């Protein structure tokens, strides 16, 4: 096992009984996001502050 490999975790909003949609991993100063169904396509990385800001805005939406 590569000790530098990202530790992926599934979104808490993913359907536990069906296909999972999004996984995230913490990288140094960034958050990586990938499609669970298409992992081989890679991931997008965002600065951690921007990612947490986006989540805060989404959580505040009705």
Order of helices and strands: EEEEH
Name the shape in a single word: flat
Gyration radius (Cα, Å) is 13 Å
Q: How is the largest sheet built, in terms of strand order?
A: 1-2-3-4
Strand content: 25-35%
The counted number of beta strands is 4
Query: Kindly state the mean pLDDT as a whole number?
Result: 85
Helix content: 10-25%
Largest sheet: 4 strands, antiparallel
Query: From the helix content, strand content and strand pairing, which structural class follows?
Result: alpha+beta
Number of domains: 1
The termini sit apart by 42 Å
- Low-confidence runs of at least 5 consecutive residues: none
**Helical run tally:** 1
Pfam family, one: DUF397
Domain DUF397: 7-58
Organism: Nocardiopsis exhalans
Protein name: DUF397 domain-containing protein
Characterization of this structure:
The chain is α+β, with helices and mostly antiparallel strands. The protein has one domain. It contains one helix and four strands. A four-stranded antiparallel β-sheet has the order 1-2-3-4. Strand 2 and strand 3 form a beta hairpin.
Observed structural traits:
DUF397, 1 helix, alpha+beta, DUF397 domain-containing protein, 62 residues, flat
Summarize this structure briefly.
By secondary structure, this protein is α+β, with helices and mostly antiparallel strands. The protein has one helix at 48-60; strands at residues 9-10, 22-27, 30-35, 44-47. A hairpin with a 2-residue loop joins β2 (22-27) and β3.
Produce the secondary structure layout:
Elements: E1 9-10, E2 22-27, E3 30-35, E4 44-47, H1 48-60
Antiparallel strand pairs: 1-2, 2-3, 3-4
């Amino acid at each position: 096992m590569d000790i530098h490999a990202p530790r992926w975790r599934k979104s808490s909003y993913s359907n536990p009984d069906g296909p999972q949609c999004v996984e995230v991993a913490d990288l140094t100063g960034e958050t990586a996001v990938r499609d669970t169904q298409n992992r081989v396509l890679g991931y997008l990385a965002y600065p951690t502050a921007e990612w947490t800001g986006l989540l805060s805005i989404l959580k505040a939406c009705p």
